[in-house]
Amino acid sequence: MSDQLKKGLEGVLVAESSLSYIDGDAGKLVYRGYDIEDLARNASFEEVLYLLWNGELPTEEQLAEFSDGLSEEQAIDQSVIDTLAALAEADERPMAALRTGVSMLSATEPEPDADPEDLDAARRKGRRIVAKIPTILGAYDRLRRGEEPLDPDPSLSYAGNFLYMLTGEQPTDVAEETFDMALTLHADHGLNASTFTAMVIGSTYADVYSSLTGGVGALSGPLHGGANQDVIETLLELDESGQDPLEWVKEQTEQGRRIPGWGHRVYNVKDPRARILQAKLEDLSEESGETKWLDYTSAIETYLTEEKNLPEKGIAPNVDYYSGAVYYQLGIPIDMYTPIFAMARCGGWLAHVLEYQEDNRLIRPRGRYVGAEDRTVTPIDER
Ligand SMILES: CC(=O)SCCNC(=O)CCNC(=O)[C@H](O)C(C)(C)COP(=O)(O)OP(=O)(O)OC[C@H]1O[C@@H](n2cnc3c(N)ncnc32)[C@H](O)[C@@H]1OP(=O)(O)O
Ligand SMILES: O=C([O-])CC(=O)C(=O)O
């Protein structure tokens, strides 16, 4: 047994997976053998979910059946809507409302007594959760704005239906395509912190609701998915300052501030998802004529690259750096960015939990004890 301490489990190999592969030096991400750019441009999010869950891209017939199956599971029970209304009244953050909402879905689960080792039942439960997350998020955003939640529209794609339930309007083709691509880019990423959290929970054979609720919790932190909201808040702060972007970022970094959306445990170069989202932001900015967010992200990138030489140290833009500006251009409320990440990643969490459970072993590492020894209890009145 090795006594070498690996803080943050950096580089520790804990499982085999055929789901996604990351080459951190080449800036490459692959789902089941397909390059992420190829999938983002040529497959819908539903096709990517099918791929992650079944190992192959679907035929047209398989996709139609799969998408219908998802659509049939989209509705959420009134009890969940009532709870979301109470959370909205309490001004809860959407990511916390999502965590509660996902957990609460188990109360109306049609197969509550399925054997925890029955992976087909777990897959069906997980699919129900993935289907319902857009409905939870759409309902929550509307409730907090004093509007009635909308019923899902089964004729729309997963991405289109979410945008519809959020805004009450049929999404434009550009919005739907952009959002669909963003979901694909966020669907899976090896053993990141939230996926590993879901796997740890799944390794005890706790039910899939617990695994996916845990995934939402882990993703919410600013070192992980929470960074996409921090990025746009940083850009808004820069905007409000009225300063020249280069001057602003110089001042901020000289004060020791870490710019969110930069740095990654695995990538030593620019994240391929950031490259794709940057190109998308360029397209959207050109189409809308609003180039401010692109100008800001570019100026910060130029400064951190040319003046601070961060890429030379292996610190480069990650997926969260450009997603926020893309969502901002689509008019999505900024505190929904991390919940949207969870919506996309839930399919990846499920795939990893089920893959791990196929050859399950309880995940239980150890810590080195460095505390006091051989003490005896002094009675409380003598302490
Ligand atoms: C979807 C995702 O989860 S992607 C990541 C989203 N999170 C962020 O964007 C938050 C900002 N980034 C970070 O905090 C980190 O880069 C993390 C948490 C993502 C990765 O963390 P780790 O692998 O543990 O790296 P760690 O925090 O130890 O940093 C290593 C070195 O890079 C530096 N560094 C890391 N990120 C940044 C950054 N954003 N800006 C400046 N320097 C940075 C650290 O200061 C450290 O330098 P040092 O060795 O000279 O002290
Ligand atoms: O892999 C990671 O550590 C973080 C990340 O980029 C993701 O989860 O998408």
Automatic annotation (TrEMBL):
The keyword Acetylation does not apply. One of its GO terms (biological process) is carbohydrate metabolic process. Keywords: Transferase, Tricarboxylic acid cycle. Belongs to the citrate synthase family. It is an enzyme of class 2 (transferase). It catalyses: oxaloacetate + acetyl-CoA + H2O = citrate + CoA + H(+). This is Citrate synthase. Its EC number is 2.3.3.16.
